[in-house]
């Protein structure tokens, strides 16, 4: 991953020197020489990265390069930011400014010497390239040379048929039935999914199926390696299809590439052929091969297997995604591999241990086979218990055990090895999230940006996309490559949350450790000891994820020499952690001089001070104290001139005074203010030209005119705290900015602010998402003309009953949440009329205890796919009209009356209304 680090550092330094060129003039020559050295090194890093897994010497060399690049970036930016800060304090005279810097010990000569020292290290490392036999590689395909042996081990063959196959039978029959019908003839079909799911096994079963053998006349199977030769692939397919004589085989070998492509094209068009292209990784691979495959109507079929969704999409609608095995299928496969041969024994404890261990496999067939292979030769309960204690190690690494079973991590690591350099650090960053957790995409992209992992060089020329847009593209690519799994989707079809398979996470952590990318500490006892053991690792620790437990007595140990180069500090488990003392709890944070990311969320068991010294952490780009009991907002935060994300959403009962320093944070992109805060005068925000998110803008303590100057603003939450003077005039003057807002939340905290709240909503006509919280009895009559509105959330509004007529007419609304007191107290009946909500796909009705009757007329909500009904204590029966919702795929019911729960049981009188829904999630009833 040194290639990624060096490339990102070069871009970071280049961007910084352009922005702050006049403040780096004293060391500009040294900076330029250092950049040149790194640029000269770049071409060799692809080969070095590919070889470090097999050569310890190269691995050490790569680690030194990584550290040198990081150190260079730290030195240049630390020096530059200090000079800039002096200028901003009003020291206009250059000599006077540098004199002040000398007094503080930041001597210009020292900085220059430090940069030269790092440059000398890089130069020496470059000089040693020849002795390590590291070659310069400029093309994108050369880095795979180290995979040659592994590719041979992983190569698939058509004649090797697995004996024990579980969970794929229905997939095979579906493929056979679908593809052999004349009306379903498709030239290209794909099977895709993450490594280890059984794509090759499914393709092989299809290849040998009796009906398939009767249907096609000729067959060819090719495993496409990552270092494939186009001609070799074409020639191999052609020879398999035509079964040539010795003379004809020589004739094929004598053909030019163009001739062989034409001949293969002719054979596929003339004959009824099945060609399996196993393990295609990239679209480019298909683009190189497709010239020999007919794209017109033909009786031949090309079947691809791939880990990449983008490759699978080449087959358009003819892509078959594979899913993990369920619990029953997992046990069946495990039993065949690990227990079948010893059928005479009493399963008893073996089954208990086996089922417990299977939970770690998460339905991945490869993991089940690896585990079963290890246990097949373990003949005692004691041996099974020993494996159970270290089950992750056995599954992931597959080392020092049965040699024929390769570790899952090594197989999954092929997907990592195939990533372009810019995606590798983004993937490794996912390792810090806890096991089985689902993480928000909006937070992840902000962290990537703050860490400098997103390359602006990926921005399309002339595009207006933001760096966050590029980050989302990166995430989408990781999803397509089956390294990340989609969680929830938003109303505009964007991915809202993600997760990674536990076994992919294991592989991720192994890679992160090998690359010295991330260190995990699972209690504070490790916090000192593991850092002290840093010398045993390759490279300095740059990122720390600390999982605190009840034994910890502080967040981090102070005065640790490791702290000086940590860039990312993320804490987990704070919600359950009770510190022994709040005094100085956060003080050690000041030792982290180059920290870019600080995430101290959910620290709510004690009220603590954020130290004023935090203002010295000038590199900080991401700071979140969300849901933590922070007492004050230190004025020194105004010194954090690089800050991009500030999340100060502390608990609502804490009322904080916000000093007027936010205006100094001119790089802010996302600002989340507390729910309750005060300020002396109006907070000035007009200087925040990069701001995209502004949360909890107070009408009392902020000037709404400033919003008009925030030309990049996309998400806005306004709190209406009283009567606003000249609001209509202010809204008119900020019209051009208002049209750019995509997500709007209006919280009316007063009974007198309803009119102002509606004026605000009426001014934001381009919004996609709208949430109204607080007294608003009437919706804007023109709401149905908002062209983009797809999501609407209503809470505590007290709407008049006739407002349902406005809601039903929203033409593009796909998501609707009706919450607590959405309608007035005297509203007892909820009616969804025929033809209402034509585009609605998701409806959540929750906390509406006053509703005693709900009617859904036939023809209402024709596209509804998901319905959640929770804590509506007044309902004793479900609407009869639910039976008309033929597209409903999932119904969730929680916290309802016992009477209702009884009626919807399989033998209940209301079950007929919901029996057509494939997925029913019925929670425990609430006791009313």
The radius of gyration is: 31 Å
Mean pLDDT: 82
Structural class: alpha/beta
State the helicity in percent bands: 25-40%
Number of domains: 6
Q: Any guess at the CATH architecture of the largest domain?
A: 3-Layer(aba) Sandwich
Strand content: 5-15%
Please name the fourth-level CATH homologous superfamily of the largest domain.
P-loop containing nucleotide triphosphate hydrolases
- The CATH class label of the largest domain is Alpha Beta
CATH topology (level 3) name of the largest domain: Rossmann fold
Keywords: Nucleotide-binding, Plant defense, Repeat
Domain NB-ARC: 169-343
Protein name: AAA+ ATPase domain-containing protein
Domain Disease resistance R13L4/SHOC-2-like LRR: 580-898
Structure description:
It is a single chain. The chain has 928 residues and is of the alpha/beta class. The protein folds into 6 domains: 139 residues, no CATH class; 173 residues, 3-Layer(aba) Sandwich (Rossmann fold); 80 residues; 84 residues, Orthogonal Bundle (Arc Repressor Mutant, subunit A), CATH 1.10.10; 151 residues, Leucine-rich repeat, LRR (right-handed beta-alpha superhelix); 152 residues, Leucine-rich repeat, LRR (right-handed beta-alpha superhelix). The protein has a 17-stranded parallel beta sheet, with helices on both faces. Strand 28, helix 31 and strand 29 form a beta-alpha-beta unit.
